[in-house]
Amino acid sequence: GSLNCSDPTSERWYHGHMSGGQAETLLQAKGEPWTFLVRESLSQPGDFVLSVLSDQPKAGPGSPLRVTHIKVMCEGGRYTVGGLETFDSLTDLVEHFKKTGIEEASGAFVYLRQPYYKEK
Questions:
Q1: Distance CA 31, CA 53 (A)
Q2: Which of 11, 57, 60, 68 is deepest in the core (most CB within 10 A)?
Q3: pLDDT at position 105, please?
Q4: Which of 61, 53, 54, 60 is nearest to 25 (CA)?
């Protein structure tokens, strides 16, 4: 990651420094499938993570919904989730995948329907 990506967006779905566990707790409490947020990667500074609440339970019936974490890399000021497409901004990336969904390695699709806004 490079420094030009350190403060990428003023969008309210961007939560800055937040752990994966915190993101899961927030999204699972919301409970609406395909709610998403973007956070800064604590393990890979300069990269970001798109955390999305899926429509599948994490364990058995009645358990919280599974949260998928998709790594967003910043390379040379462009953002990518690892496919061929690169984007000028996190906003462009999110807007694009709101329309198409993101295909995971497993072949499952992840959708971005409801932004999880941070409190002002």
A1: 8
A2: 68
A3: 82
A4: 53
